[in-house]
Write a structure and sequence with these properties.
This protein has three domains: about 100 residues, Rossmann fold, CATH 3.40.50; about 70 residues, ATP-grasp fold, A domain (Dna Ligase, domain 1); about 240 residues, ATP-grasp fold, B domain (D-amino Acid Aminotransferase, Chain A, domain 1). Helix 1 links the parallel strand 1 and strand 2. The radius of gyration is 22 Å and the shape is globular. The chain is α+β, with helices and mostly antiparallel strands. The structure holds ligand MV4.
Length: about 450
């Protein structure tokens, strides 16, 4: 087991990882920018190292500073959290070269999944169902037209270096294809320095369902059920829940076993998320994330398993604490992302939180690094906390969520709490009847009314 873990992140996830380290009796080091000297995780860590000024590229993304902080403190492993360097293959490689363990998959696995064409090729090879489309990159318009005619319109052009919704263009007919292809290619070249694009059948009304998987790095793989993350705005998840209201047990077991076997065959190590679009009873792979995700507590609530403990165990060579048959799904969980934003137009609302009171009681978890009197710096993303609610079934979970939202107080800044108070009373949400476009349509309609 590790002696000392350096946490290369900030905010609620830094605190989340710190808690797991403490439970395992592992010493902690946090690195932070000058803007985060007052953060809760900095106060609670055994050691802290200030690594630079507020801008992320000079602190949380500064690989050399972070490696130096490891050397100075004698940390033998790094947990990257999510975002920042969590999916940076070069960072994983550099740590390995310094004999420091990156708590995550190998640099090579990160690299493969970071290239969306390579990721899709790999998924297909491993027997994961993918969206119909080009086998690899599309070279020219003639090829694009041939493939589009074959799979049928509408189609979507995606950047191989994109992901998370960046660099996509829909073409509804052959007349629109040339423009979509050229725009996607030039935007990809400008944004990512890689103009490779691929083409897929465009699915009109899918849900976004993602499977939590784990590899032990020694040829075993398991799945921890799925999360339904269809409620998004501008590719930012707002509400996540598990298990998905859209799936039954046999559908779950079928896709779960495919994914667990794929992860095993890959020799993958650590936590991963396999993202699918789900429409008319079929799963279509889109991307794989090679990190712990923001919404991982949903899975922890329904399985009772601490996923950060598992990450640390696997990275230290101790393997997973569970086999597939030990993983059972209990009840239902919903996570609401509480952002420091105007709940109507989502503009950031940094500033001082004058009063912060979190809900409690059975089935309630709040992951947050903020406190009364804390000043939210303007330099980073606006997530200030996550409310995760668990119940024996979805109805109980929703009742408890409504009550928890009533108790939650965040004064001094604007937050997205009022949006969740609206959503929890909405009939479509109560019925689990929504797709990836539901939230944007709902917000557009509320703006009118
Ligand atoms: C799609 C799609 C429809 N058809 N691919 C957006 C984020 C990126 N991970 C993939 N995305 C999409 N890919 C095909 N073939 C629709 C989306 C999409 C979306 C996906 C998940 C959650 C929200 C979304 C919002 C708009 C578009």
């Amino acid at each position: 087991m590790f002696q000392k873990i350096l946490i290369a992140n900030r905010g609620e996830i830094a605190l989340r990882v710190l808690r797991a380290c403490k439970e395992l009796g592992i010493q902690t080091v946090v690195v932070h920018s000058t803007a985060d000297a007052d953060a809760m995780h900095v106060r609670l860590a055994d050691e802290s190292v200030c690594i630079g000024p507020p801008p992320s590229r000079d602190s949380y993304l500064n690989i050399h500073q972070i490696v130096a902080a490891c050397e100075i403190t004698g940390a033998d492993a790094v947990h990257p959290g999510y975002g920042f360097l969590a999916e940076n293959a070069k960072f994983a490689d550099i740590l390995a070269a310094h004999n420091i363990t990156f708590i995550g998959p190998s640099g090579d696995h990160i690299r493969v999944m970071g290239d969306k064409i390579e990721a899709k090729r790999t998924a297909r090879r491993l027997g994961i169902p993918v969206v119909p489309g080009s086998e690899g990159a599309v070279s020219d318009e003639r090829e694009a037209k041939r493939i589009a005619a074959d799979i049928g319109y509408p189609v979507i052009i995606k950047a191989s270096a994109g992901g998370g919704g960046r660099g996509m263009k829909v073409a509804r007919s052959e007349a629109e294809l040339e423009m979509a292809l050229n725009t996607a290619r030039s935007e990809a070249g400008a944004a990512f320095g890689d103009d490779a694009v691929y083409i897929e059948k465009y699915l009109e009304k899918p849900r976004h369902i993602e499977l939590q998987v784990f590899g032990d790095g020694a040829g075993a793989g398991v799945y921890f059920g799925e999360r339904d993350c269809s409620l998004q705005r501008r590719h930012q998840k707002v509400w996540e829940e598990g298990l998905s209201p859209a799936l039954n047990e046999s559908q779950r077991a079928r896709i779960g076993n495919i994914c667990a076997k794929a992860v095993a065959d890959l020799g993958y190590s650590g936590a991963g998320t396999i993202e699918f679009l789900y429409e008319d009873g079929e799963f279509y792979f889109i991307e794989m994330n090679t990190r712990l995700q923001v919404e991982h507590p949903v899975t922890e609530a329904i399985t009772g398993i601490d996923l950060v403990h598992e990450q640390i165990r696997v990275a230290s060579g101790g393997g997973l604490s569970v086999r597939q048959e030990d993983i059972r799904f209990q009840g239902h969980a919903i996570e609401c992302r509480i952002n420091a934003e105007d709940p109507r137009n989502f503009t950031p609302s940094p500033g001082t939180i004058t009063h912060f009171h979190t809900p409690g009681g059975l089935g309630i978890r709040v992951d947050s690094g903020v406190y009364s009197g804390y000043r939210i710096p303007p330099y980073y993303d606006s997530l200030i906390g996550k409310l995760i609610v668990h119940g024996r079934n979805r109805v109980e979970c929703m009742m408890r969520l409504r009550r928890a939202l009533d108790e939650f107080v965040v004064d001094g800044i604007q937050t997205t709490l009022p949006l969740f108070r609206d959503l929890v009373g909405n009939p479509d949400i109560a019925n689990g009847d929504y797709d990836i476009h539901w939230l944007e349509k709902y917000l557009a309609a509320s703006e009118q009314g």
